[in-house]
Amino acid sequence: MTEIADSTPTPAREADVPVAFQDPGYRAAVVDLLGAIAYGEISAFERLAEDAKLAPTLADKLALGKMATVQFNHVEPLIARIAALGSEPMDAMEPFVVPFDAFHAKTAPSNWLEGLIKAYVGDGLAADFYREVAAFLDADTRDLIITSLADAGHSAFVVERVGEAIAADPRVGGALALWGRRLMGEALSQAQRVAAERDSLAALLAGGVDRPGLDLAALGRMFSRLTENHAHRMAELHLSS
């Protein structure tokens, strides 16, 4: 019988905790961020598993299943870190359940290709946002987040399948470009809401560890970089952004 790991929080000894975590505000911000990413990975797993039902071939179904598994395997290290910081992982993820589920309900794909675009563009934008925030964190937490955002095989698979579909019927490209732009708008709004509604995350963006305060101009540049990365992804798919 497979044993289920005990997720009961085990507070780390102060000697084992970086100096940054002695600041309660910073610790709360990190727990919030890890909770958001962990639930995001769970949501991605559920969505990819559901999208696999739309796959036109068994090979495509298997490919999405593998990507879903990679996403799910990222969750355990994140909740382990939350527990090590003395917080309950389920409590840390709970604030993000409703907004994340609402976002996915609002952007539910209507077909296989829309699901692929969402996996590539939507997840890519979320990963970019979390990497931007991670730049303000201590090295250990930053490395954990970067690892959890590793590409689950989306890029090459999605580019290939979308390219094949557009080659077979160029009219598909226009509809997918519109879908990509919609996803971008919804995802940016979601990221801004998450940052604004969670005081700890807003404070983190206002000035990270060993970094000067972040002004509105710098915040604007961050969202500009997110937009530029989105345009690059769309170009890889041969879609206008």
Question: What can you tell me about this protein's structure?
Answer:
The protein is mainly alpha-helical. It has one domain (21-236): Ferritin. It contains 11 helices and no strands. The chain has helices at residues 24-51, 58-73, 75-84, 89-93, 97-106, 112-134, 139-148, 154-168, 171-197, 199-205, 216-236. The chain starts with 23 loop residues before the first helix and ends in a 5-residue tail after the last helix.
Task: Provide tags for this entry.
single chain; globular; disordered N terminus; 241 residues; Ferritin; 71% helix; mainly alpha
Summarize the structure.
This protein is mainly α.
Write the layout of secondary structure elements.
Layout: H1 24-51, H2 58-73, H3 75-84, H4 89-93, H5 97-106, H6 112-134, H7 139-148, H8 154-168, H9 171-197, H10 199-205, H11 216-236
Uncertain segments: 1-16, 209-213
* Percent helix: over 70%
Distance between the terminal alpha carbons, to the nearest Å?
50 Å
Mean pLDDT across every amino acid position: 83
Tell me the fraction of residues in β-strands, as a range.
under 5%
Major sheet: none
- H/E element sequence: HHHHHHHHHHH
